[in-house]
Design a protein that fits this description.
This protein has 498 residues and is of the alpha/beta class. 33% of the residues lie in helices and 27% in strands. It has 2 domains: 5-385, Rossmann fold; 401-497, ANL, C-terminal domain (GMP Synthetase, Chain A, domain 3). It has 19 helices and 24 strands. The strands form 6 sheets. A 9-stranded mixed sheet has the order 2-1-10-9-11-12-13-14-15, sandwiched between helices. The protein has a 4-stranded parallel sheet with strand order 4-3-5-6, with helices on both faces.
């Protein structure tokens, strides 16, 4: 099936129902969205061949959802990109995915237009894209590619997780089964990037003919979120733990009326139990946790609202520190270095399999074979089950830094810093941060008789990678600690500077 059929279905059955809101205003009914999707798809088919990739370079706005479903409607493959990435990083994804067209918002047009033909929202070309007779939804097989989800790899280069229509359908059904049922009066607001988790979780709300709401400010603003709760009611939204912390500590949001809030789905990084307790004291048991990754889109384990609410359980606090139980349509196990299953209580790598797991990485057979060996997705995360089946993550893949819900791989930052002619060695580690979970710290060794300034290195990073990846602190050392094989001992660096 083609997921775009959901818009067509509700456009016929419940055409006057609000499909997309922009702030508090109606942007499109389902009838209007379905009609526009048909026309956009028809024009996309004149520009692209079947199965070609179309990149989406947009900050959060209603046109993002229009573009996503029109691409699917036309039988094409969407490549949503993180709007916070550096222009060179966006260029890499565009080139690697072999995208034939880019649909961009005005604020990102200059960053991507030099890489491929670009149509900018609000432009005359965009207006022409929305005019014409349109086409029917193009038939797709369940295993046809729908979304190339670019996620950082251990080499520092992002990898494109291939998500099929089957994968995204499995994710949608798991949401409705394990997180919450969704009905016509429910709304999903998007303060987090549509290019990643928030956009993925727009799908259950389209599948059921509910409402998706894009904030007018295009991102995370506690005061606007409070206003949207009151305006729409029955609101759910996805938030990284750092966003939850910021909401709780924001006086305006804390003092607002929260009656319109239905559910906060949190994930993308560790949630400190104390932060969760403060949030629940403020908002009530309206929280559900998900654990997943781009390779199994947002769907490995979950911690339900009912479990959050049941403080009478003897191990309730321990359970709140876990990432919950395996999802309804996913098998999860803990394995040792030889991929042998481990019993409860023993620590190993988290493995998952099911219809939600990607078939592989785009144009990377080696990485695909490594990640999916034995028929299981190897997440790179380390954890353990308890006797009741709750999974607790003990660590991320050994070097991964998670800051503000975003994954940062140290090698990518290290390679940029090593471009400086006076840098001899560098090792990047994560350091705990009260608001962001972790912050990036660069431990740097200068070449003999050279001196380095943090400002120089900061500028180098800002010119090459996304702002959120740059180090927040630089530690200048005479040498880096190493073992007998010459490998840098990051454990020692974390002990002293992490």
């Amino acid at each position: 099936m083609n997921l775009a059929g959901w818009v067509e279905k509700w456009g016929r059955a419940e055409g006057e129902r609000t499909a997309i809101a922009f702030g508090t205003a109606v942007y499109a009914s389902y009838r209007q969205w379905a009609a526009r999707s048909r026309v956009l798809a028809g024009n996309l088919r004149t520009l692209c061949r079947p199965d070609e990739r179309v990149a989406i370079a947009m900050t959060n706005r209603p046109e993002f959802l229009e573009a996503l479903f029109a691409i699917w409607h036309a039988g094409l493959v969407a490549v949503p990109m993180n709007a916070k990435l550096h222009a060179d990083e966006l260029g890499y994804i565009i080139g690697h995915s072999e995208a034939s067209l880019i649909l961009a918002s005005p604020d990102l047009a200059d960053a991507v237009a030099r890489h491929r033909r670009t149509i900018v929202t609000g432009s005359a070309q965009w207006d022409r894209l929305g005019r014409g007779d349109g086409i029917d939804v193009v038939e797709r097989r369940d295993d046809d590619l729908a979304w190339l989800f670019y996620t950082s790899g251990t080499t520092g280069r992002p990898k494109g997780a291939m998500l099929t229509h089957r994968n995204l359908m499995a994710m949608t059904l798991a949401y409705l089964s394990d997180i919450e049922p969704v009905g016509a009066t429910d709304a999903k607001i998007h303060p987090a990037p549509l290019s990643h988790g928030s956009g993925l979780y727009a799908l259950p709300f389209v599948a059921t003919g509910a409402k998706n709401v894009v904030p007018e400010k295009g991102g995370f603003d506690p005061d606007e979120i409070a206003a949207l709760l009151a305006a729409h009611g029955n609101v759910s939204f996805f938030a990284a733990p750092t966003m939850v912390s910021r909401l709780v500590n924001h006086a305006g949001f804390a003092g607002a009326d929260h009656a319109g809030l239905r559910t906060v789905i949190y994930g993308g990084g560790p949630m400190h139990v104390e932060t969760l307790l403060r949030a629940m004291d403020l908002l009530g048991p309206k929280f559900a946790q998900i654990y997943g990754q781009g390779e199994a889109p947002m769907t490995i384990t979950s911690l339900s609202k009912a479990l959050h609410a049941d403080r009478s359980r003897s191990r309730w606090r321990d359970i709140m520190g876990s990432v919950g139980l395996a999802r309804s349509n996913v098998e999860v196990r803990i394995a040792d270095a030889e991929d042998r299953a481990l019993p409860a209580g023993e620590i190993g790598e988290v493995l998952a399999r099911g219809d939600v797991v990607m078939p592989g990485y785009w144009r990377d057979e080696t990485a695909s074979a490594q990640a999916l060996r034995g028929g299981w997705l190897h997440t790179g995360d380390v954890g353990a089950f308890d006797d009741e089946g709750y999974l607790t993550l003990k660590d991320r893949s050994k070097d991964l830094i998670i800051s503000g819900g975003s994954n940062i791989y140290p090698r990518e930052v290290e390679e940029v810093l090593l471009r400086h002619p006076d840098v001899l060695e560098v090792s990047v580690i994560g350091r705990a941060h009260a608001d962001w979970g972790e912050e990036v710290v660069a431990c740097v060794v200068a070449r003999p008789e050279r001196t380095l300034a943090a400002a120089e290195l900061d500028r180098l990073c800002l010119d090459a990678i996304a702002r959120f990846k740059r180090p927040r602190d630089y530690v200048f050392l005479d040498t880096l600690p190493k073992n007998n094989y010459g490998k840098v001992l990051k454990t020692e660096l974390r002990k002293h500077y992490g």
